[in-house]
User: Fold this.
Amino acid sequence: MSRAQKCTRTSGLSTEILPVGIAGSEALFPIDEDSLNPVRIEVRIGPAIQADALRQRSHANRQLIMDGIGQAVAAILPPKYRGVYGNPTP
Assistant:
């Protein structure tokens, strides 16, 4: 049992994962430039995900857990930032 699991189980707290997406930061300091650019950056925060529910739905499969989190982040980002999670499978 991990340290985090011990803490949440003994304290009776439910662990939540907060999906946060950041869009536009790539234009702030482009790789080939030496200075910062004034740009608009959006930070979007999605609804919390109950870690225990996600673990149960994925049968504790770590890849499925990470995919679920990736899909939650992608859902709050503009389409061009969604990457491999842009077209979630049902």
About this structure: The CA atoms of residues 40 and 89 lie 31 Å apart. The helical segments are 3-11, 51-57, 62-76.
